[in-house]
Write a structure and sequence with these properties.
about 80 residues, mainly alpha
Length: about 80
């Protein structure tokens, strides 16, 4: 029973990683830049804008997104 649940979770993770990799490759072939790098840059710019507008907590929250986007990129490339 437990092994079946673990197997189902692994299959779901593989589907998610495959989908992320597919989307990233499509964006990269169109724009020349990885989707995750675009999202990272936008999050950094958004964080700076929020900070300059006085929303420091929002800036901190959005500023934590770039490492997540880079981790997703790493995960999507790990099973080439």
């Amino acid at each position: 029973m437990i092994a079946e649940n673990i197997t189902e979770e692994v299959v779901e993770m593989d589907k998610a990683e495959t989908m992320l990799h597919t989307v990233d490759e499509k964006v990269k072939s169109t724009s020349g830049v990885s989707l995750f790098h675009i999202l990272t840059g936008l999050a950094i710019v958004g964080s700076v804008v929020l900070f300059l507008r006085g929303n420091k907590l929002g800036a901190i929250f959005v500023g934590l997104w770039p490492p997540t986007f880079q981790a997703l990129k790493s995960a999507s490339q790990s099973k080439k």
